[in-house]
Amino acid sequence: MQADHPARMPFIDALKAVCCLLIVTHHLAIYGPMSDIAYPLIPTLIDWLREYGRMAVQMFFVIAGFLVAAKFAPQGLSLVATPIRLIHQRYLRLIMPYLAALTLAIGCAALARMWIYHESIPAAPTVSQLLTHIFLLHDLLNQDVLSAGIWYVAIDFQLFVLTILLLWISNQVQHQYPSLYMLSLILIISLTAASLFFFNRDSYWDETALYFFGAYGLGILIYWASVSKHQVLWFTVLIALILAALAIDFRSRIAVAGSVMVILGLARYYGILGSNYIPGYLTYVGRASYSIFLVHFPISLVVNAAFFKFLPHQPVIQLFGLLVAIGASIAAGILLFNWLEARPVTNRTRMLLPTGFIACGLLIMLGNN
User: What's residue 71's pLDDT?
Assistant: First the structure.
């Protein structure tokens, strides 16, 4: 969701905005009670969002891979020389708005628990939960999450780390053996295929980057294909790879990832990534999509609880509540984006924010005991 690319690409920002809104509405559809009460008014839409809205995450993975390739291996040749520094920078970019949003999530969940009881409201956090969330290890260590969808942040970081290490290895080998200049391509396409044909077919791996690398790798590969002298050949190879993976085991998530791969490849081929015809508000939402994604669940919790407790349980009123939750989530995400994500992070903030997050969590935990 958070772009690592040298220049703005309005077309990609617009795609990210659409993906972000799909995730927000998907979570509103599955985490009641507003959606349950409003269901008779729009049953088809709510059913569709519940079933297919989550597919937008696959779109984010493809886009993320595409942008990583554009920045760190734009011609298929690795530019990664200092992997630890890059991984550290990526962690800080992800973690600062993430921890701010989790602090908000803890507070909003505590407020919502005061008004209603609902299974979607997280319990007060434990110390182990807080620590594993800070280091993005909550899923790997089987800790209950404090906000919906944040598994994505941990997986995105794993994917980035894995890709940077593969690119660094290929860079080191290329310096020693110049004839192996295509090693980065070999490594990425091999892991992408392994994910599509093996790891992604087994839910045992779904807490690791290996499960999702199929979509991420397709983003990397379609970028390289689009700058190749043999574009048509590589497009054909990648489409054949997708079709073969679907023929062996059809998965909607892989079909979506493959479709987005084709869209990005065609967009770059026809030079519309930098199109000026994309509405400005859409690209702005796309730029703030990571922050919106982070804060939408706690905001939705509070709106859900308030409408359920204080207003009549009528479908029209609760449908209005869903719209309020969407608007409030976008507004809060934009505030977080402007306040934190879009600004350089100072060393003091890096120290104070995790400390404040832990303190806030402990205080709320003690207040609920």
Answer: 94
| Tens-place pLDDT, residues 167-180 | 999 999 988 887 77
Q: What is the pLDDT of residue 149?
A: 85
What is the three-state SS of 181-219? CCHHHHHHHHHHHHHHHCHHHCHHHCCCHHHHHHHHHHH
SS3 content of the chain, % helix, strand, coil (to 5): 75, 0, 25
Closest listed residue to residue 167, CA positions, set 175, 258, 233: 175
Please measure the distance between the N-terminal and C-terminal CA atoms of the chain and give it in whole angstroms. Answer: 36
**Residue 367 to residues 99, 103, 124, 140: CA-CA distances in angstroms?**
20, 15, 9, 28
Q: Which of 99, 94, 201, 211 is nearest to 154 (CA)?
A: 94
Burial class (CB in 10 A: 0-12, 13-18, 19+), 179: exposed
What does the pLDDT read at residue 355? 53
Q: Using the structure block, give the residue that is written with the tokens 């990526």.
A: 90
Q: What is the largest CA-CA distance in the chain?
A: 71
Would you say 34 and 322 are in contact if contact means Cβ atoms under 8 Å apart? Answer: yes
DSSP SS3 for 118: coil
Of 345, 364, 287, which Cα lies nearest the Cα of 95? 345
Q: How many CB atoms lie within 10 A of CB 1?
A: 23
Estimate the crossing angle of helix 209-226 against helix 183-197, to 10 degrees: 130
What is the C-alpha separation between 129 and 122, in angstroms, rounded?
12
Phi, psi of 6 (to 5 degrees): -75, -25
Q: Determine contact, residues 308/34, Cβ cutoff 8 Å.
A: yes
Please name the residues in contact with 138: beta carbons below 8 A apart, sequence gap of 6 or more: 129, 132, 144, 145, 146, 150, 151, 154
Q: Note the pLDDT tens digit of each residue in 210-260.
A: 999 999 999 999 999 998 888 999 999 999 999 999 999 999 999 999 999
10-residue stretch averages of pLDDT, the chain, 369 residues long: 58 95 96 93 96 94 96 90 94 90 89 86 85 89 87 96 96 83 91 97 94 97 92 94 97 96 93 84 93 95 94 96 97 92 63 54 49
**Peptide bond preceding 33: is omega within 30 degrees of 0, i.e. cis?**
yes
